[in-house]
Amino acid sequence: MKKYTVKSVYDEITATVTHIVFDQNTLDAVVIDPVLDYDPASSKIFFDSVHKIETFIKKENLSVHLCLETHAHADHLSGAQELKKRFPQIKIAIGSKITEVQMTFKKVFNLPDFFVPNGSQFDLLLDENSFIHAGSIEIKVISTPGHTPACISYWIGDALFTGDALFMPDTGTGRCDFPSGSAQSLYESIVNKLYKLPDSLRVFVGHDYKGNGTREAKWETTLEQEKLYNIQLKAYTTKEDYVRLRQTRDSTLAAPRLLLPSIQINIDGGRLPAPEENGVSYIKLPIKSR
Ligand SMILES: [Fe+2]
Predict the structure, then answer these.
(1) Could you report the per-residue pLDDT of 147-197, keeping only the tens digit for each?
(2) Positions of the chain with pLDDT under 70
(3) Fewest beta carbons within 10 Å, which of 56, 128, 232, 278?
(4) Can you tell me whether residue 166 is helix, strand or coil?
(5) 172 and 133 in contact (C-beta within 8 Å)?
């Protein structure tokens, strides 16, 4: 298996890990899950996270071909469009089932007719088991639904990027309580797909919560470690046990802090809403009663 270099950038505010994967020989590169910083209280965006990625890319003289989204995130705004402004050749890719997520949230946000839930907001829609290329880098697309129906894991050489499917072994797996999320599906995705891949694969996760504040942030492990020690889903865990544990845990979790702003922007390829006639963009927040 070809070994690529991975530079990971940790966002302290949203606990998101952005990965830059590159070929040391050709300098071809991809960026996985970039973050656009957003402060909901002041409704201000800022570019610290994108700037870190941009600086690294320029310092290493990388040729970035793709921005790979593992899914439509519910806890941070995607930095894909800002990255594309800085590197216009980048194509933004996401799983083809994003259309299901778009249909769901078009209704939730009562989006206008011109928002068509057909995935056209992204440059590339990726299908299960397909291969895509970024210069000398070959990427296998593995559909890993459960956290959302459109989640993708990316297998690149000796590394596997699991997004919010698998976290570090002491943390477990992604939550499955978003619309069309499914603990049963996530079990199938992890046990029947990811755990069938070579044990030696390096696993890079999409978030890390520092073991609930008990350790430093970590984002790299191996598939062998996950299968042996994942606190929620080991190779021998039964589906029944996992689903019970996942659903019990999910029933205790609050909605992510940036859920409503994130989703409406991220299903539109990471674009901010079009400015109104006064030049200002507005985020829409539905009001529900308890
Ligand atoms: Fe997520």
Answers:
(1) 999 999 999 999 999 999 999 999 999 999 998 999 999 999 999 999 999
(2) none
(3) 278
(4) strand
(5) no
Could you tell me the distance, in angstroms and rounded to a whole number, from the CA of residue 74 to the centre of ligand 1? 5
Kindly give the distance from the C-alpha atom of residue 164 to the centroid of ligand 1, in angstroms, as a whole number: 5
Statement: 5-253 belongs to CATH 3.30.190.30: no
Look-up of token digits 């800085």: 86
Question: Looking at the whole model, is its pTM more than 0.90?
Answer: yes
Q: What single letter denotes the amino acid at residue 76? A: H
Domain positions in the chain? 5-253
Structure tokens at 42: 């002041």
Among 211, 202, 172, which residue's Cα sits nearest to residue 190? 172
CA of 259 to the centre of ligand 1 (A): 10
Does residue 117 contact residue 94 with C-beta atoms inside 8 Å?
Answer: no
Q: What is the pLDDT of residue 231?
A: 98
What are the tokens at 48?
A: 């610290």
What is the distance in A from the centroid of ligand 1 to the CA of 157?
A: 24
CA distance to 26, 233, 240, 249, per residue, from 208 (Å)? 30, 17, 26, 17
Range 212-248 burial, b when 16+ CB lie within 10 A, else e: eeeeebbbbbbbeebbeebebbbeebeeeebbebbee
Kindly give the distance from the C-alpha atom of residue 247 to the centroid of ligand 1, in angstroms, as a whole number. 16
Residue 290: per-residue pLDDT = 79
Give CA separation, 2 vs 5, 133, 137, 139, in Å.
Answer: 10, 14, 9, 11
For the segment 65-74, what is each residue's pLDDT rounded down to a tens digit? 999 999 999 9
Find residue 143's DSSP bridge partners.
Answer: 152
Tell me, what's the pLDDT at 288? 87
